[in-house]
Each structure stands twice: as C-alpha cells, then as structure tokens.
Amino acid sequence: MDGHFVPNLTMGPDLVKAIRRCTDLELEAHLMLQNPDRYYKDFLEAGADLPLIHVESPVNTGILLKNITREGSRYGIVINSETPFEKVLPFLEDAALLLIMSVHPGFSGSEFHSRFCVQDSRSSLIYR
Predict the structure, then answer these.
(1) Residue 52 contacts by C-beta under 8 Å, 6 or more apart in sequence?
(2) Would you say residue 1 lies in a domain?
(3) Which residues, by range, are in coiled-coil regions (predicted)?
(4) Which of 36, 118, 122, 127 fits a disulfide with 31 by CB distance 3.0 to 4.6 angstroms?
(5) What is the CATH classification number for the domain harbouring 71?
(6) pLDDT tens readout for residues 58-112
(7) Residue 7 lies in a domain
C-alpha cells in the first residue's frame, strides 16, 4: 500500500526480503500501488514469487503482466468488488490466481461487500 492507490501505508520489499530469509513457502505480494509497474521488480528481487496486480491500477495492465512474465514470474489478478468483472477477463487465462476483494482495499476491518458473492459465483462459472 502506497498511500495513493489506497489511503494507507505498509511495508515494502524489505519486509519481503526478511520473510524470504525465514521460509521457502511461496510469497505473494499484493501490490496495492498507484504505479505497480515501477515497483514489481523490487518485490521480485526481494523474493516475492507471485505479484498480485489490481486491474484498477492506472497502468496498462496487459503490458505490466507481460513484463512480469518476462521476468520469469507468474502473477495474480486482483479486482475490487465494485469493479465490473469483465475487466479481469482478458487476463484470467494466464493468471495463477484471482483475488476478488470482499472489502474496500486499504484498511483491515472494512465493511464486507455482498457483491463479492455475485463476483465469486461468476468467476466460478467461467471456469466450468
């Protein structure tokens, strides 16, 4: 979280690097950033295995995901509950993970969005 894409701040690549020294488990880096295209390499170099990219970020998502793939990494797609599900469709086939936010991103303890249930059902139907 960068304080711009969402109104909160969290730790960055240094925390990923510290955690990586303690485990071989797969590490996901949920990049709630205004410019994930500027920082994804830092997270990969720190030891993150799977950057999670919001389709709502004001970057060219397709180009960003191709660049992540060129780095030899897989990626996950994140969609907020108020975003039309169609926005993730172009990226689902190659995504390792789809994260549908059930709360507005930025703060823990936020109100649950019931639209999440509809989004989740729709994503399940696409793959059946």
Answers:
(1) 28, 29, 30, 31, 75, 76, 77, 78, 97, 99
(2) no
(3) none
(4) 36
(5) 3.20.20.70
(6) 899 999 999 999 999 999 999 988 889 999 999 999 999 999 887 665 555 556 5
(7) no
